[in-house]
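FIELD: query
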Amino acid sequence: MPDTITVAGVSVDTRHWIGGRRVASARTFPDHSPIDGSALGEIARGGPAEAEAAVAAARDAFPGWAATPRAERARILHAIADGVEKRIEELAIVETTDNGALLRSHRRGVMPRVAHNFRFFADWLLGLGHEDFDTRGHTNHVSWDPAGPCVLITPWNAPLMLATWKVAPAFAAGDTVVLKPAEWSPLTASLLADIAAEAGLPAGVLNVVQGYGSEIGDALTSHPDVRRVSFTGSVPTAKRIAESAAVNLTPLSLELGGKSPLLVFADADLDLAVDLAVEQYDNAGQVCLAATRLLVEEPVAEEFTRRFVEKAAALRQGDPRDESTDLGPNIHPRQLEKIDGFVQRALATGARAVIGGHRKDGQYYAPTLLTDVAQDSEIVQEEVFGPVLTLQTFAGEDEAVRLANDTRFGLAATVATGDRERAERVTARLVAGTVWVNCFFVRDLQAPFGGSRQSGVGREGGTWSFDFYCDLKNTVTAPKGWNRNHG
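FIELD: result
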């Protein structure tokens, strides 16, 4: 099989990147575009041998990278950001072809955010620190020591943005990285390796290994030389990773699924609330933070639903490369089967499809809103990860909060209300890592990000990322006892 493929005119190497060079595997796996199901190429399929080689390269590169001055590490991160910005169009079209997300979003938002990830953590590194403090005349000095090789396992719904959300702070902290991208969207991780090498990142600091889930993942997460594991994905996979990492007590950061609510109170700006609700179909519903449970106060439920259906019906679904498209395809035939299974089981048990409720041609699923759903039903309790929302009503704040918190998840929540005091009361009672009030998906890298309950373990972002990717050390120095005759 060829070592490179051409995707929309862009050459992409299909081999692993280990220790600063391309490495092939005896086996491959196919990669297809969700847009039309066309074959993009065969990707190197790694296993335990490739995992061992990648960790060894990261381990060998770690002392030199950890000793690199902060200013130099920051310079290289900025150089990587420069490389991303020069190739935004290439990265955008490759990722759209590979995972089906909107090209316009990749061009204008996602790929610029990739560059920003590197710039932000480069700059944050230079200001990182704690003031020394005194304990009975003794000086306490806190330092941020690089932890070591990190395994970063990333999802398919926003491949490069979510990968660099982890890679950038790990590099800034002085760690080396083994990146394992999702097998359904592997291509932009390979381009990142090229960009990092061109920016002057030393060999072995970034390693990219491709492969199917546990075939390579178990060998990475259970490796005794790995000092951190960060994973974004499903709860079942996270449990397996936790078991694997527990062998060495390797610290974990887990950003998992959600079943987030959007609470619409009767005093809300209904046009704004409807806009927020329709926005949950972004990326064909393949967004972990999506507020897929619409909870609407009874007096405005009928009017809200009418306006929602009108606005959702105007969404244009089709080829994500078309500038006018609002919804693209779902990532994979298996994901489409999963989505439709959730919907059909819900319909069979009494739910009603106000809109949608069916597949379309290819890997496209109609935007769906289901009503008449029970709180304990599967469709309300489990993450679908597709363009499927449910709508329930409530009679007051207490019931709204009870319904909002009544799942095993706690990743995010959105509140629409015109009453500031109500917003403060309700948000204080919601179980969620992030709460948006009269807005959605506004994220600042300074803020902590992560989930409660089964939506995750730990927080990343700003200083919280360095808390994870570093070993914090406190050095306590006595005020006397120095030998002045040392010369």
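FIELD: remark
The longest helix spans residues 103-126.
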